[in-house]
Write a structure and sequence with these properties.
about 575 residues; alpha/beta; two-stranded antiparallel sheet; 19 helices; 15 strands; globular
């Protein structure tokens, strides 16, 4: 049965509930669950062919189809050799989405497909024949998270029925830059509705428009959020790469849970213009991909100063349009890496075991491991309400400003969204309510509380946290587990987060890169490298070095549950 309409708390009760959560472990659970921002046979077993990176020839590949685990370099080699076209590639992905995402396993990662994708691919093929490729993304199909505007036939809904209607009037800047790079925008990915800022008890990957996205490794487990569909679609080989967004954890947690690479960039490195917002002080856009190289390629296409987003002005002279020169298979050699243990380990024996093996692998590859290298402010940051104050204060104002750019949809303000959800209770609030919405609309924090909290949180996370320990130990990066193995999806009670390491980089506005570190019971566990503002080149070097010596990533096999995975010997 759905939760009763009578169970909705008042804004005052919701605020009291939040304040009582700020007591150590309880608050940790709250922030992690916020995720700010979430029959036993394998279905991927047919023989296929893929392009060789060295020759461009199509070669037999046992245990996968032509798309499984392919990379941008391999696809470009095949297209350059004339053995593959963008239209063929786009059709193959559309067929795979039809057969596995919408039928078969029903991963449910794709919210909407682009009806123009085939035409765009054909145009790019003609351009390639006429004048050559624009760059490494020419003809490459990518997916955008469903909160990123596209000025085309697709809607931008953030997963909410309250935004179902006319498309956005223009592309988000990141979408426009992908088009300029020659990418084929294949569709929109499902997400935790409103990027997981609606309820205290949400299930990551669920939206009123799209339903529940599944983890492609074990389908009854959660893909984490809020960029759930982006991570699951990339992992399941439904696209080459995807764009995700993060406020606190929403790029890195889905990357970790779905066994892919996620780059959460420095705030201001990529534009947020045309992205449904939570907080201009923490929102970022970054890529999901199956390799560090592919994520680096996509990141380079997104960067640059954008007049539509004032925060990008700080990136002038600091951004790169090509991050691939920083890829280094020996990137761990000589790197000084600090192990951030306090508050970021100890919540999961499975995670801790994989993390210790990862540290050993880094040390064996020549990294200088400083252990521990705890943030001096780790516990203080965890227990200070600064982040909460900033996010709740900015959300209403930022969302209303964004909604003012939209026409032809049912709502124009946060208050309208609250009313819409109440009027469509069965569709939108069947499993969880909208306590955050009610709270933000009530303006529980004063402007002065906000103005005090903003620099306090940034200092705790940045200057007095990440920067302080890196200065003290002369570090190139910090490392911590990304999170626990995925939990069983629970629509009734919501997410079962155990722990994560996303908050310091998120609150400071600093970069983080997550990639697979190991598997527990058939489920991926990620590792996160993070550091100073604008240190993406260093983090890419280190992450690519870790990837080169560990080779952890493996394709999901879409098991129904843990027992099915165990019977097949995959867990």
């Amino acid at each position: 049965m759905p939760r009763s309409r009578l169970s909705r708390p008042s804004p005052e009760a919701a605020l009291h509930r939040l304040r009582t959560l700020f007591d150590g472990v309880s608050r940790r659970s709250f922030l992690r669950s916020f995720a700010l921002a979430g029959a036993g046979a394998s279905l991927a077993g047919v023989a296929g062919r893929e392009a060789s990176a060295e020759t461009g020839e199509l070669v037999e590949r046992r245990g996968g189809d032509p798309l499984e685990e392919t990379t941008i370099a391999r696809l470009q080699a095949a297209m350059a050799a004339g053995r593959l076209t963008s239209l063929q590639l786009t059709n193959q992905y559309l067929h795979r989405i039809r057969d596995i995402d919408r039928r078969g396993a029903r991963v449910n990662s794709i919210l909407e497909l682009n009806p123009d994708a085939r035409d765009i691919a054909s145009q790019l093929d003609r351009e390639r024949r006429r004048s050559g490729p624009r760059g490494p993304l020419h003809g490459i199909p990518v997916v955008l998270k469903g909160n990123i505007d596209t000025g085309d036939a697709m809607m931008t809904t953030a997963g909410s029925l309250a935004l179902v209607g006319d498309p956005a009037p223009q592309d988000a800047t990141v979408a426009a830059r992908l088009r300029a790079a020659g990418a084929v925008i294949l569709g929109k990915a499902n997400l935790s509705e409103w990027a997981n800022i609606r309820s205290f008890h949400s299930s990551s990957g669920w939206s009123g428009q799209g339903g529940q996205t599944k983890n492609p490794y074990i389908l009854d487990t959660n893909p984490c959020g809020s960029s759930s569909g982006s991570g699951a679609a990339v992992s399941a080989n439904f696209c080459v790469a995807a764009l995700a967004t993060e406020t606190d954890g929403s790029i890195v947690c889905p990357a970790g849970a779905n066994g892919v690479v996620g780059i959460k960039p420095t705030l201001g490195l990529t534009s947020r213009a045309g992205v449904v917002p939570i907080s201009h002080s923490q929102d970022v856009v970054g890529p999901h991909a199956r390799t560090v190289a592919d994520a680096a390629i996509v990141l380079g296409a997104l960067t640059g100063v954008d007049p539509r987003d004032p925060a990008t002005a700080a990136s002038a002279g600091r951004f790169h349009s090509d991050y691939t020169p920083f890829l280094d298979s020996n990137g761990l050699a000589g790197a000084r890496i600090g192990v951030a243990r306090e508050t970021f380990t100890g919540y999961s024996e499975e995670t801790d075991g994989i993390f210790e093996e990862a540290i050993d692998a880094m040390r064996a590859a020549g990294a200088v491991i400083v252990d521990p290298a705890d943030l001096p402010t780790a516990n203080e940051l965890l227990n200070d309400p600064a982040e909460l104050i900033v996010l709740v204060y900015e959300f209403k104002r930022d969302l209303n400003a964004y909604l003012a750019t939209r026409t032809g949809v049912p709502i124009a303000t946060l208050a309208d969204a609250i009313a819409f959800n109440n009027e469509h209770f069965e569709e939108e609030q069947r499993y969880f309510l909208q306590e955050f919405f009610d709270l933000a609309e009530s303006d529980p924090f004063s402007e002065q509380e906000y103005l005090d909290a903003l620099p306090r949180g940034r200092a705790l996370a940045g200057a007095n946290g990440i920067d302080a320990i890196m200065d003290q130990e002369n570090l190139d990066a910090l490392v911590a587990p990304t999170g626990s193995p995925a939990w069983t999806t629970d629509l009734v009670n919501g997410d079962h987060f155990l722990g994560a390491s996303s908050s310091p980089a998120a609150v400071a506005g600093y970069p983080s890169i997550t990639l697979p570190a190991g598997f527990s019971h058939g489920l991926p566990v990620g590792i996160s490298f993070f550091g100073r503002a604008w240190s993406e080149p260093t983090l890419i070097r280190i992450a690519s070095g870790f990837e080169a010596v560990t080779h952890v990533r493996r394709a999901p096999r879409f098991f129904a549950d843990l027992e099915a995975a165990e019977r097949a010997g995959a867990a």
